[in-house]
Specification:
The protein is of the alpha+beta class and 427 residues long. The chain contains eight helices and 20 strands. Strands 7, 8, 9, 10, 11, 12, 13, 14, 15, 16, 17, 18, 19 and 20 form a 14-stranded antiparallel sheet that branches. The longest helix has 12 residues.
Amino acid sequence: MTRSRSTNTGYFLAAAMMGFGFTGAVVAEELTEGTVIDASNLADVLDDTFEGHTIKEMLPDPIQMWIRDHNMQVPLQHSQNLDIPPGLKAATEKYAGTVTFNPETRLVENWVAGTPFTPHSEISLDDPYAGYKLAWNYFLTQTHRPDSIQTEAPTLLIDGVKGVEQSQKLINYQLMLKGRTTGGPLDIAPDDPGLFKKQLIIVTEPYDIAGLGSFSVRYLDGRQDNAWAYVKSVRRTRRISGNVWADPLANTDLLGDDNGIMDSNPAWYKDVKLLKRTWLLAAAHTTGIVTSENLTDRVDTANPPYWNFINNGYEPREVYVIEVINPETNPYSRKVVYMDTERPNNYYSEMYDRKGDFWRTNWFTYNKTTAVNGDPAYAVSVFSTVDWQKMHGTVIHLDRYAANAPYDPRKFNERSIERAAKGQLQF
């Protein structure tokens, strides 16, 4: 359905107002679950509400443009609670009060595990460093990437006029070294207190670029990543620049920092500001991950612009709106991020070029799942990065997602790239 009313109250109220001569009044109404917001009714429902919040408030201007001009549909569904894994919850309760933010270094101090700054009680619009604290909350909590993840991620490169140009597949392995909350030691790299996580990305399809990959080590103390790449032509692993967070990611429309919307050490940002708290229609509880088998049921690859999500429900979520100011070496001058206030999930962001013009969007959707160890987890269902200046998009979904799978950290190093390229990777 494209528009549904919960009662006839609005109709009778409007009729009564007309009887008293108030013919110019617009009566806001509460929409029902299942209402689909699209180009045909967007202008009519902006002042209406869902769960008490206006549609206008919950749809940022670029998403309104997307709906109005590019065939996006937003079905409404009622909001649900976000489950927090018990280990993460316990660590947050135990350690959050001991963590401090150092404005001079832009680093956190005394963090052990869990979310460092408790939302609501430790995050205030009056705090000039609230933006940084939220960025650290996301960086250290890694909400959809807990102690470890293994994913297989088919990736579509899409021309917004012509359709899907190319499909490629990436495998992504990540291992947290500090702040682990699923049992066992909190720190599995005690010899280097600055170590945070290791990540391996390998292209497995198509054939002509299969085997390309990178391995990186990320740090808590503000150091740039240590990074290596496998050079297929010479079959060797080579050290590369650690500034990969500001570089394009594997022929896609993403920069390294867009993987997760804010995938960098917050100390690298020039500034981070908390702009406001508001509400957003977000796909926080979709129906399962989007796989190669059900792709066309969840992404409209048949109609322009070929990257729109379909058959998702969007629920009201209270969010922090954060502005990230980037250093001059980053292609983005700034990024505006929408982060859940209940736990640091990033749903949506807008990126602006060096002239300050609107450039790209990231839109992440999530589904509730179960980690290998039985903990509740939230997997990325599907996400898009769209370059609106070029009308080009990247859609990434998951054929496989395994959270908290065991790794042997001794086997997870730069030599893993070559083993993965040869199909010999084992942990």
